[in-house]
Amino acid sequence: MLELPKFKAAAVQAAPVFLNVEATVDKACSIVAEASGNGASLVAFPEVFVAGYPYWNWIMTPVQGSKWYEVLYKNSIAVPGPEVARICEAAKEHNCHVVIGVNERGQSLGELYNTNLIIDNKGNLVGKHRKLVPTWAEKLTWTGGDGSSLKVYNTEIGPIGTLACGENTNTLARFTLLTQGELIHIANYISLPVAPPDYNMAEAIKIRAAAHSFEGKLFTIVSCSTITQEIMDVMKEDVPNVEELLTRKNSAFSGIIGPNGAVIGEPLIDDEGIVYADIDLSKCIQPKQMHDILGHYNRFDIFDLKVNTAPKKNITFTDNLEE
């Protein structure tokens, strides 16, 4: 008989130790220990938790922000690398799966990726996803990923997929994960108070998560960062009114959404903390009898989605000289 996993998930709503990679990794390992101690088998961290989000792109000119890009790059990490090894060790020590956002260095000093790492409870880095398209002002910082990272990873607690922030609105990317059997979706975000005045960021995050859960009949774990006074103080010399720009309410949402699109328990809005929920993947079965967009409730004779999963290459060397 088919037995689907049951486990407790933890969605982290917290800020990194801004632009301090070593201290942020310490904080991440401490949170893994705390969540595991509370029974969690999966811990989801915010977007680019290691070691911060480039808020200067939104509140400074590109010229002003250039020096901050350099600071961020120096506090980015190689994947794999020593910082990743420390997080993997924490996952192994606490028998916990971890999905965490990082700033990943590329081959070039101008190449930086918004990357989610997927780590299993044995401490293995089983995969990484690079954000496909940086959103709006983020293009000043990050390079886009490619289709090779649009993958779902089978783990002891079930098949896990992940997308970062705005790409959770990309219907084709989400469908690509669903077709690979995704039942646990990690959607991680940053608090973004600089959105247009009529844009409720917390509500927008919840809507995206609910849409994916309802359409795919799966669980979505949403993890969002927060903005601390420390983050604002770092940039205050360049932007004296930084508090005015980065303290709007309803800018962060973390919570867990069930296969019916409803929030399980109480989410966190703006405040730091950890949201827990019990996950039973068998709850994904019944809703699919009504709408299974991966099977009987689709028309693949009409629709044909092709996904290029080849890794992007910056250069190809050939030697075709004739003797």
TrEMBL record:
Q: Which PROSITE patterns match?
A: CN_HYDROLASE (PS50263), NITRIL_CHT_1 (PS00920)
* KW Hydrolase (keyword) present: yes
Pfam families to which the protein is assigned, alphabetical: CN_hydrolase (PF00795)
**Superkingdom of origin organism:** Bacteria
Keywords (A to Z) from UniProt: Hydrolase
Q: What is the active site of this protein?
A: 47
Report domain CN hydrolase positions.
7-281
Q: Name one GO molecular function term.
A: nitrilase activity
Q: Which family does it belong to?
A: Belongs to the carbon-nitrogen hydrolase superfamily. Nitrilase family.
Q: What is this protein called?
A: Carbon-nitrogen hydrolase family protein
Which organism's genome codes for this protein?
Answer: Flavobacterium rakeshii
